[in-house]
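REQUEST ID: PR-0412
SUBMITTED BY: lab tech R.K.
PRIORITY: routine
TASK: structure prediction, single protein chain
INPUT:
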Amino acid sequence: MTYVITHNRDTSDCFQAMCGVLMGDPSSPTLWNIFLSTFDFIHDPNDLDLLGAVISHLKYADDIALISCSTHGLQSHLRGFKLYCHSNNLTISAGKSWVMVFGHLPSLLPILFLGGEALSFRHSVCYVGAHLQSTHRHLLAAHFTVKRDSTFTAAGGIAGCDLLIGHQRLNPPIAKQLYPALVDCHHINGCEIAIDTNAHLLSMLKQIQLLFLCRMLGLSRCSILAPLFTVTGIMPIHTRRVILALCYLIYLLKLGPEHYTYLALQENFNL
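STATUS: complete
OUTPUT:
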């Protein structure tokens, strides 16, 4: 395969590579970002505007999200994306592509096409590890549900170790070591953006933590709550999530207007 590197108006000589990039090679995402750096859309008046910064799409490796505030604008982006991929020998999987509508749902959903194929609509998808749900007032409600299930599975796996060591209960110090690696990581996943404004969603995570601590200490489910945390030294999940969210807020406030996350935060302040 022959390669050519173009930077600004300078073009290198042709050179050949005897092999491609190995799967998992650290240079793979960097090379992909360089390859996709030329991808962009012509400005559309229906593109998302964050304090003057126009955002028409998000790119995370080969997972690309096209954004528009209108059906016409989104269809225009789909045509432009198809044209770009065709010109650069890229293949689009329309079967793995879908549409989500946030906000007020129209009585009749429009039909959008990508490469001649009609795209399906979904109300819940996972993008970059975040589970989004367009039919719930809490955008990340599905994320809480998924992480609750993951936490329950991990906590049950630790509790199930009792069956492997005989009839004795797993030593609490050992269970405490397993907790941050297998349970807490799901408890706090996405807490920087999935703010705990819904008591019901947060209670799903709190309940699993309490059940795990009771099982770890060999106490009844009706046990007083305070000793569960003072004895183990484990922080209540709602407190831990708030602290992490505040730390992320401090980080965002220190960013400049050249960062989209900073602009998104300022837009939230303006609501």
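NOTES: Residues 1-38 form one domain.
REVIEWED BY: pending
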